[in-house]
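Work Package 4 report. The design task specified in the project plan requires that, given a folded chain encoded as structure tokens, an amino acid be chosen for each position. We show below one input record used in the internal validation round.
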């Protein structure tokens, strides 16, 4: 009982936001983790976990039956569900994947703006625990257990300032990395290497072509990044808005 009370105390605690300069440095680290080629596969794995998790959540929310999620060593993933092969539920489920990282990043940014960085880490740990029961392959199991173990160590042993910094780093990674898989998808489609992507499946279910879906995903993720910057760096956003005016 004391452990549970301590967890709630930590999760509900409020931490002051770091100086804007520190937040920008963390954003720079996240940007490097996206643009440096040898590091990108590791960063992309975080995006894939969120992508497939978003598929799974959307499937459950739209009344589909979720059969499991697979994560692969090439940073791809697969979410299996059953239900109507067409209709709004299927469309929402397919569209949720590429929108998931940005949406989670925006939600995380809102929590950080409210001083809930430690609470954000505990929430992510809960989400990983829920995702764990849906994993259906060994590599995916190792990935989720590894991420969960890292979060447990950080939330239990690291000081609040370090926890807050990690929370900001994860949030920036989600926001900054979200557009890149869409750009990769558009390149693959141009080379005819992706004929069964989410965008192609959506094109088969709607009158909207796959390219338009890809552009929509890209614009939505860029908009999510801009919104996230506004939440995490309000002073910078205010200055940019003043310059535009």
């Amino acid at each position: 009982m004391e452990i549970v009370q301590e967890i709630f105390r930590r999760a509900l605690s409020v931490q002051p936001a770091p100086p804007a300069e520190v937040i920008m440095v963390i954003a720079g680290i996240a940007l490097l983790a996206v643009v440096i080629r040898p590091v990108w596969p590791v960063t992309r794995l975080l995006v894939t976990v969120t992508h497939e998790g978003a598929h799974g959540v959307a499937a459950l929310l739209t009344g589909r039956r979720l059969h499991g999620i697979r994560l692969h060593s090439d940073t791809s993933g697969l979410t299996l569900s059953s239900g109507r092969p067409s209709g709004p539920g299927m469309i929402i489920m397919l569209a949720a994947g590429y929108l998931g990282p940005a949406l989670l990043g925006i939600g995380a940014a809102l929590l950080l703006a409210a001083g809930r960085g430690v609470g954000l880490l505990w929430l992510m740990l809960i989400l990983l625990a829920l995702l764990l029961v849906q994993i259906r392959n060994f590599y995916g199991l190792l990935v989720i257990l590894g991420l969960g173990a890292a979060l447990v160590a950080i939330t239990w042993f690291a000081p609040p300032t370090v926890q807050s910094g990690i929370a900001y780093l994860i949030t920036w990674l989600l926001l900054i990395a979200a557009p890149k898989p869409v750009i990769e998808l558009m390149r693959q489609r141009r080379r005819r290497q992706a004929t069964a992507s989410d965008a192609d499946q959506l094109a088969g279910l709607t009158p909207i072509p796959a390219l338009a879906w890809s552009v929509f995903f890209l614009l939505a993720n860029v908009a999510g990044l801009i919104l996230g910057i506004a939440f995490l760096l309000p002073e910078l956003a205010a200055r940019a808005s003043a310059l535009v005016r």
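DSSP finds eleven helices and two strands in the chain. Validation will be extended to a larger panel in the next phase.
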